[in-house]
Write a structure and sequence with these properties.
α2 packs antiparallel against α3 and α7 crosses α8. The longest helix has 20 residues. The protein has eleven helices and eight strands. It is of the alpha/beta class. The strands form two sheets. Strands 2, 3, 4, 6, 7 and 8 form a six-stranded parallel beta sheet that branches. It has a two-stranded parallel ribbon with strand order 1-5.
Amino acid sequence: MIAMTKRLCRADKLLLGGGVAVVGGTTLFGLGMLGLGVPAGVLGLLLTDGIFRPSSSTLYPTISRGPREHPKVALTFDDGPDPQVTPQLLDALAAARARATFFTIGRYLAMHAAIAERALQEGHELGNHSWQHDRLQNFYGVRAQAADIDRSVQLIRQVSRNDVLPLYRPPIGLKSPSLARAAQERGLRMIAWSLHSRDTMLRDPQRIAERVLRKVRAGDIILMHDGHDREGYHRVATAAALPLILEGLKKRGLQSVTVSELLAPKA
């Protein structure tokens, strides 16, 4: 029983515990509010939190920020590589001597591997943001989740020429019990964010930069986008906002590093 419990992911433990609570409640108090309604309601709230709150660790351990005591932040870019936007971001990062993490969509990485290779050569990090970035991916079963993860991992390892398991960020930040099971089997390090730039909604680069610089704190993992999950769309405002953000970070004494560098234990 102990060995089986160790193999269960947090999502399985939650579902198992919730099921026991519902059965126990109805046995003791019947099918009314106290016996069924309260345990089922609590389980539903926990599942909702685990699925829809990107930083939630209810279903799977999820990291959303680094230590606050060091003057560092991690800029992260999702949904690329994008042939129009990502090179502009790399130019801005190089000019500022800053590093970032690019959570790539596998099918785009396959098309634009040379851009990712440049990012690696310039000290940036590649993360896994799924192969398809299917907006219905949360409904995948464990096998489909695992296949999607593994396909991108294989390509990232090929491009980076090492066997390090890349950091993982699920599409739209959503998690599910099936994703949690696939992630645990692979020992994935799940990364969310503590500051959203809102560059998916804002079209004015100045407003994007102002939002980030108004809210940023040491240790933040900042979510931005260099690509779009729909082909033919480009995040041009992000490219224009990044130099403003980098200048603002410099004025605040904050250094942009990769997520792995931000989270690395200090000697």
